[in-house]
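Async update (no meeting this week)

Hi team, since we skipped the sync, here's where things stand on the single-chain job. The sequence we agreed to prioritize is pasted below, unchanged from the tracker. I ran it this morning and attached the output directly underneath so nobody has to dig for it. Comments welcome in thread, and please keep replies under the output.
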Amino acid sequence: SPAFSSAAAIGVLLNLGYYGMLYASTLYFRTERGYDALATGIALLPTVCMAVVAAPLSGRLTARYGPRLPMTCALLLGAVGFLGWLLAGPETPY
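Output:
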């Protein structure tokens, strides 16, 4: 079905963006900030915790409203978050 194929493709794109961001942010904290492995993990903890909160919430929203609205909102929110990383530099506060 076209609706399922579109939803699956958007899900793949969201996951690629998220895991790519985790990889890039790990390198950022290690090389630009000089964090050790533990500090890098702690710095990334809010991102992982948000994913744990968002997964069941998105399931409920999808059951109530269908996949189009939650996925559109997730794409827009993710784009804003990923664009925020463009401003990060060595002197950017945590």
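Quick observations from my side:
Residues 29 and 40 are 6 Å apart (CA to CA).
The mean pLDDT is 87.
Reply here if anything looks off.
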